[in-house]
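Slide 14.
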Amino acid sequence: MDAGSLSALDQRIAGCRACPRLVAWREEVARTKRAAFADWTYWGRPVPGFGPPDARLLIVGLAPAAHGGNRTGRMFTGDRSGDVLYEALYDVGLASQPTSRTADDGLELYGVRVTAPVHCAPPANRPTPEERDTCRPWLVQELHLLRPTLRAVVVLGAFGWQAALPAFAEAGWTVPRPRPAFAHGARVALDGLDLFGCFHVSQRNTFTGRLTPQMLRDVLRGAARTAGLAARN
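Slide 15: predicted structure.
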């Protein structure tokens, strides 16, 4: 695909101001900051997807963290959830390094792109259904651009699952009806694309053991192999 098309989409996403509540929140967080990041200039804008334009595997989260992606400008970068995700991607051979601290830290993803159905950090990590639906066209456009190479998708959490299925339908894939329910380990075959469900890499899940490192790596390996990517055991 044309890498410039995806780059142009990312730029348009970063300039979006469609949801007043999210715009006010992300900018307020960027002004007030967290004490630990007082010397940072926060990104404070919608966070576009991250990864190569010819990705065979897509990972769909929920939304950027207020002091993670909203600070650094890159998905799952600078927060505990990102620490868990990128370490797992590195362990299975899909990332160049196990950490993701800043947008210019040299991290590369191999055949994998990371995105979210909501591109702005929401208060209390809870976008409204209206905000989710307003943001959906961005995901639909991203899916259109990735479709030539995309073969598998890992969706993190029930919110992402509920947001992603309508986007896949709008992007041209046939989604079963009734729509499949989210579950960790769920696998749904669309037209030439396999959808995998995985508990979200939130601290609530990882600290309590609801999502263990082994569970996450098992899903990533299965999805990577389905996508035709070489994954380490």
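Speaker note: The CA atoms of residues 55 and 111 lie 4 Å apart.
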